[in-house]
Design goal:
14 strands, 15 helices, 41% helix, alpha/beta, two-stranded antiparallel ribbon, binds manganese (II) ion, TIM Barrel, binds tryptophan
Length: 462
């Protein structure tokens, strides 16, 4: 176990990708000094609890649902927006819980997802070249010099907006909003009011009957009314993540208290890079995003570096291969990691490998391809006998028009109606819920090995 956190300057002796270039280093230092005094956003004990639950996912006894915006923006930190995202995630979770028959671990891509890796440092429009938008944590989206200049004070705003978001989420999930019966009512209305296929209607009535059965049995306790919900984001900006890393007084070990779970991005996972070095030291459960360029050897080297102690729940590997490639690229990676003896949570991100640009210049994703990648993910795990541990989705609670297809049969020409994302195209509420039904169908297909809590319950236990 590695107990001390390297200083920022120690980290920066390594290659460090995707960081903003600030004009005034003294202003950055002042901001970081202030952040170091702020209270942690999460408690290290919560991170440990999440790690224990990720271990359950890795063991095939739970399913992970991780989702939220591609990029949160300060402007979207409103009650309505937060409520909308939580509502979609809970809606999906009910369907998945029923289908998987195991607890669904709910993790938002929320309360900190403000920084974006970019493929180019600059963007040129009509002969004018400005720094690329790197997320509200760094600069503004508007294509003018003043907005695009990286501003370190935005890091304080990230902290403040994350705190406000977490505060409301914590209130919602314990304050009655997450009541299973209420969430089911939203789902029933969705199924009624849209043209989803009949088999989804059938699943909804089955859930309704299951709920009615529980109520008739007198089951009525806290667990029906509340959920545990965790926050996660890509830990991209080392300045910010480092400033929020604290030594936990219970264990004497460092935790990145900016979120319960943080992940390392496809573009910053260089073995000798500063990000891997940072992640090595924090004790949070961590995610690793893996794209099509990763070889099985790359992934094995990464997991050995990031999880030398084979700690249960430490690693979630989030793959984003693209619908066309997942069936060939994923198997050797899963086989190689399993061969190291580690149990990791295998999670499918069916979004990032399936982005394309329409003729009108909109960056979009096709619902059918998202579904295809999810199906490929399940196919691979079925063949290997491993547990398809979860999905990682970019979504919003609004009726935006950013991805094509789905029950509303959104066409490329419709994208102009409500294309609001600050970064990648997100699935809207209906598309997200429909995807949950697709996943649910795979989970109930019976070909997947999973523990059956009822069959395993022996009357002799008394
Ligand atoms: N507490 C349980 C759980 O988190 C059941 C539950 C209550 C639930 N409200 C929910 C499940 C909303 C999904 C969505 O699984
Ligand atoms: Mn994205």
């Amino acid at each position: 176990m590695v107990d001390q956190i390297p200083t920022l300057s120690e980290l920066r002796t390594r290659p460090v990708a995707q960081q903003p270039l600030y004009a005034d280093p003294a202003a950055v230092d002042a901001v970081l000094a202030e952040l170091r005094l702020r209270p942690p956003l999460v408690f290290a004990g919560e991170c440990d609890e999440l790690k224990r639950r990720v271990a359950e996912v890795a063991a095939g006894r739970s399913f992970l649902l991780q989702g939220g915006d591609c990029a949160e923006t300060f402007g979207s930190v409103t009650a309505g927006d937060i409520r909308g995202k939580l509502r979609v995630l809970l809606s999906m979770a009910v369907v998945l819980t029923y289908a998987a028959q195991v607890p669904v671990l709910k993790v938002g891509r929320i309360a900190g997802q403000y920084a974006k890796p970019r493929s180019k440092d600059t963007e040129t429009r009509d002969g004018i070249t400005l720094p690329s938008y790197r997320g509200d944590a760094v600069n503004g989206l508007e294509f003018v010099e003043a907005a695009r200049r990286p501003d370190p004070h935005r890091l304080i705003e990230v902290y403040n907006h994350s705190a406000a978001t977490l505060n409301l989420l914590r209130a919602f999930v314990t304050g009655g909003f997450a009541d299973l019966r209420a969430v089911h009512t939203w789902n029933r209305d969705f199924v009624r009011n849209s043209d989803v296929e009949e088999r989804y209607e059938q699943m909804t009535s089955e859930i309704e009957r299951a709920l009615a059965f529980m109520v008739a049995c007198g089951v009525d306790n806290e667990s029906l009314r509340t959920v545990d919900f965790y926050a996660s984001h890509e830990a991209l900006l080392l300045d910010y993540e480092h400033a929020l890393t604290r030594i936990d007084s219970r264990t004497g070990t460092p935790y990145d208290t900016s979120a319960h779970m943080v992940w390392i991005g496809e573009r910053t996972r260089q073995l000798d890079g500063a990000h891997v070095e940072f992640f090595r030291h924090i004790r949070n459960p961590i995610g690793i995003k893996i794209g099509p360029s990763a070889t099985a050897e790359d992934v094995v080297e990464l997991v050995e570096r990031l999880d030398p102690d084979h700690e249960p729940g430490r690693l979630t590997i989030i793959t984003r291969m693209g619908a066309g490639r997942i069936r060939s690229l994923l198997p050797p990676i899963v086989a190689a990691v399993e061969a190291t003896g580690r149990k990791v949570a295998w999670v499918c991100d069916p979004m990032h490998g399936n982005t394309f640009e329409t003729s009108l210049g909109y960056k979009t994703r096709a619902f059918s391809q998202v579904v295809d990648e999810v199906n490929g993910f399940f196919d691979v795990h079925e063949q290997l006998g491993t547990w398809p541990g979860g999905v990682h989705i970019e979504l919003t609670g609004d009726d935006v028009t950013e991805c094509v297809g789905g029950v509303g049969e959104l066409a490329e020409a419709d994208l102009a109606n409500r294309y609001e994302t600050a970064c990648d195209p997100r699935m809207n509420r209906d598309q997200s819920l429909e995807l949950a039904f697709v996943v649910a169908e795979r989970l109930t297909s019976g070909r997947i090995l999973r523990p059956n809590p009822v069959q395993e319950f022996q009357p002799e236990d008394f």
